[in-house]
Write a structure and sequence with these properties.
Chain B: Keywords: Activator, Nucleus, Transcription, Transcription regulation. Chain B: GO terms for molecular function: transcription coregulator activity. Chain B: This is Mediator of RNA polymerase II transcription subunit 10. The complex is a heterodimer. Chain A is mainly α. Chain A has helices at 2-17, 46-57, 92-95, 99-107, 114-117, 129-132, 136-141, 155-158, 207-234, and one strand at 166-167. Chain A is elongated. By secondary structure, chain B is mainly α. Chain B has 2 domains: 1-61; 67-133. Chain B has helices at residues 2-27, 34-57, 65-72, 78-116, 118-128; one strand at 28-29. Classes of the chains: A mainly alpha, B mainly alpha. The interface between A and B is large, with 71 and 65 residues.
Chain lengths: 250, 134
């Protein structure tokens, strides 16, 4: 399209200003833009004027302006580019058969949180990974040293995993905090043993979840008080720790 | 293609479940739990071996880095797919509008030039044809 316009403009220019004059006029008047000078009359017969142009300017102008025999009387008439079958004129989503995916993701409302995508995954996955150093970005920037094959632990190596009896200290109990269990259509149904601690739900902005929390709060408080008493009897002394939990329900 | 993803998904779920049970054992450890702990640790190693085997089937899978940013922010990665599709559709419509506008301009220009330079336009159409490719 751009080639067509440039060709036509070039032809118009040469037709308007490439006259039968033997000597080309000098100064701004040569271009017909001088004050008070009318535009030169358009020649009636276009072909001979165009044909004369190379004769007139061939001696002075560059050789590029000689038209080819095929494309007379047009200068610099190039072949149009080969048409591409796939352009923005076609609906690319239909072309690549992505209607189903489009309706699935754009037709319905996609939930914001990561826990909605991975409901079975335990732990606080909705929090940014930068906070606890579990981001995938850091894994890419600093990949762990690997290369050794995985070999099962022998009896001698397993002796390193002998633990002290009793519950974990309070500072490590955050690992068991899970989001509320949701109905999932997961085909892999695992029978999970019960967790020792009740699930402490993070604060959500959903009003329905807040209503459920209010109903369960007094029961949870009683259970937690009883467990606190039991733990305080068994927990070792730690310097600098207070009795308040980091996540306490209101 | 979906089978190798299902296989990996199954192994990952079993691995995560094993780790979760390991955490439960450790949270309130008893001497009788030692054998269970050792078993879970070895299950963890075999789980890693299984995941390592799945890696060979998925060596040609590429994941865009922008998805990792969504996951690191705790957002659903399906939102990235949604935004990609929406931006593709918007760009498609934008380019289609440009093509339609330029096509209309071209036909208008040819018709107007045909009125003013009829002989040149007939020669032009003879060279390029009446319906040049759009």
């Amino acid at each position: 399209m751009h080639d067509f316009v440039s060709e036509v403009m070039t032809e118009i220019y040469s037709t308007l200003f490439g006259q039968n004059d033997t000597q080309p006029p000098t100064g701004p008047a040569a271009l017909g833009f001088g004050p008070g000078k009318p535009l030169p009359p358009m020649p009636t017969n276009q072909a001979p004027v165009a044909a004369q142009i190379p004769g007139q300017l061939g001696d002075e102008g560059p050789t590029l302006r000689k038209p080819g025999a095929m494309n007379e009387p047009f200068y610099l008439l190039r072949e149009l580019p080969v048409g591409n079958d796939l352009t923005g004129n076609t609906n690319l989503i239909t072309h690549y058969s992505l209607e189903h995916a489009f309706n699935k993701f754009c037709g319905k409302k996609v939930k914001e949180k990561l826990s909605n995508f991975l409901p079975e995954l335990p732990g606080m996955i909705d929090c940014p990974g930068i906070q606890d150093g579990s981001s995938l970005h850091s894994l890419i920037e600093k990949p762990p040293v690997c290369g050794n094959s995985f070999s099962p632990l022998t009896g001698a190596l397993l002796t390193g995993f002998r633990l002290h009896t009793g519950p974990l200290p309070e500072q490590y109990r955050l690992m068991h905090i899970q989001p509320p269990k949701k109905k999932s259509k997961n085909k892999y149904r695992h029978h999970r043993p019960q967790d020792p601690l009740p699930p402490e739900t993070p604060s959500d902005s959903d009003p329905k979840k807040k209503k459920k929390k209010r109903d369960d709060d007094p029961d949870r408080k009683k259970k937690k008080k009883d467990k606190k008493k039991k733990k305080n009897r068994h927990s070792p002394d730690h310097p600098g720790l207070t009795g308040s939990q980091p996540n306490s329900l209101r | 293609m979906a089978e190798k993803f299902d296989n990996l998904e199954e192994h990952l779920e079993k691995f995560v479940e094993n780790i979760r049970q390991l955490g439960i054992i450790v949270s309130d450890f008893q001497p009788s739990s030692q054998t269970g702990l050792s078993q879970k640790l070895n299950f963890m190693i075999t789980g890693l071996q299984d995941i390592e085997k799945c890696r060979q089937q998925l060596h040609d899978i590429n994941v865009p880095l922008e998805v990792f940013e969504y996951i690191d922010q705790g957002r659903n990665p399906q939102l990235y797919t949604k935004e990609c599709l929406e931006s593709a559709l918007a760009k498609n419509e934008q380019v289609k509008g440009k093509i339609d506008t330029l096509t209309k301009f071209k036909s208008l220009l040819i018709s107007e030039l045909g009125k003013i330079f009829p002989e040149e336009m007939t020669k032009y159409k003879a060279i390029h044809g009446d319906d040049p490719p759009s």
